[in-house]
Amino acid sequence: MGKYAIERCGTIILNRADVLSTGANGLVLNAPLRLDIRNSESKLRGNSPIFNKGIINWERGEISGSGTIDNLGELNFIGDGFRTINSKNIRNFNIINWFDGGKIRLEMAQPFIICPAER
Question: Does residue 2 carry a pLDDT above 60?
């Protein structure tokens, strides 16, 4: 099986939603797709890698599970909400913006790995 890819234009909003991604091949969010994680009860979790090639706007909620999130697009921490990263590592290959304050709780993770650009 290949990667599970979510494509097309538009926005997916997680508002009190619990999304589980499983399998070794991962979940791909392709541009120009935008994923908004808005509520403290919203969860994006699982044991598969996540490849963000679009935009993730993360206001509140939790990202958890084993594996990595490879940010190849844009990851925005927005609003003054509280976010939790539990056991997933974030590898940044492009842009991370932090707007409007807010807090990040790190649980069992070394979440931010800044990767050099390809030469």
Answer: no
Q: Which residue has the tokens 């990767």?
A: 115
Q: What is the number of other CB atoms lying within 10 angstroms of the CB of residue 69?
A: 23
Question: Which residue type is seen at 45?
Answer: R
Cβ–Cβ under 8 Å, residues 69 and 87:
no
In tens, the pLDDT along 11-48 reads 888 889 998 888 878 888 888 889 999 999 999 999 99
User: What are the structure tokens assigned to 13, written together?
Assistant: 């909003």
73 and 91 in contact (C-beta within 8 Å)? no
Give the span between the Cα atoms of 41 and 59, in whole angstroms. Answer: 11
Strand partners, 55: 34, 74
Burial status of residue 17 (CB atoms within 10 A of its CB: 0-12, 13-18, 19 or more) = middle
Model's pTM, two decimal places?
0.84
Beta strands 95-98 and 34-37, pairing class: unpaired
72 DSSP 8-state letter: S
